[in-house]
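Researcher: I need the complex structure. Ligand is phosphoenolpyruvate. Inputs:
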Amino acid sequence: MIVVMKTGATEEQILAVQKQVRQLGFKEQRIHGEERNVIAVLGHVYPELTDELGVIDGVDAVVRISKPFKLASREVNPYDTVVKVGPVEIGGGRVVVMGGPCSVDTEENVLVTAKAVKEAGGHLLRGGAFKPRTSPYAFRGHGEKGLQILAAARDETGLPVITEVMDPRDVDLVARYADVLQIGARNMQNFTLLDEVGRSGKPVMLKRGLNATIEEWLLAAEYILSHGNRDVILCERGIRTYETATRFTFDVNAIALVKQLSHLPVIGDPSHATGKWSLVEPVGLAAIACGADGLQIEVHPNPDQALSDGAQSLTPENFEKLMQKVAVVAEAVGRPLAPAIGAQGAARKAS
Ligand code: PEP
Ligand code: MN
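Model: Output:
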């Protein structure tokens, strides 16, 4: 349910509504609109509440929200969410690109990759220090050492870092190094983890589960948002279908639909979706053309030697080619590529 305040409602009137909502035992969140303020009422609302809240001074209307996800919905918040990550704005009408290795391996490889990503106009450095692997015997990441390698590459290049956190017990540790916490596809419905990153105060990128419906995905985002963390980014990374010729099936529909249903930014990941480096560029361009706010791309200086996902990793040269085409498509669809990261961001230390 949302309480829509009248244009020109006073601060006291808005606070009075928020207080009343809390006194009735609900959670609330205020959405500052350009013209009016809206208060989202969260919990098991009942029909009579419409009248109980509707009579308070300054209230224009009380509206039931039809979707099961509330804070993630455009019905509650029509304004595009812009997630600020250092000098980068995700969802602000300009396309952003995250690039980097699947797994963090050596300091040298990560630094070479980060420099190449930056040179080519990429905006964030990605890399996994905690890796979800299908087999327990596969390489599972360097852990904190990997986080340190990422932080060192950020210090050198100024690229903010996005990295996965898999375990609720590691959220504080990963948040000390990362600029954006990534929730992997396999953990999309790890509700304890979603609660924990919701409380972390860090931007979170939530990848769509391999078998998740769009509604389940947005409800997972709702977990994070319900803790007051508004910096949520969604990532379509392909879903499982009967098709085995590609690793997953990239759901372009989902990107276009989620942009209608939700105000949250959406990133496309053609690397995991296709599993083949030669398909990454065309599918990435499709994501941008149909509304994605950016891309996440796996890049490695020697894909053959990558500790995971080498087959879908671009070389720095191919990443540069991709960036040139992304710039053209992004411009053509009216969401130009965000400016490259300048040298000014280079000095930030891991906090
Ligand atoms: C990743 O980005 O490294 C990753 C494991 O992706 P996903 O969770 O989408 O499989
Ligand atoms: Mn990977």
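Model: Summary of the prediction. The mean pLDDT is 96.
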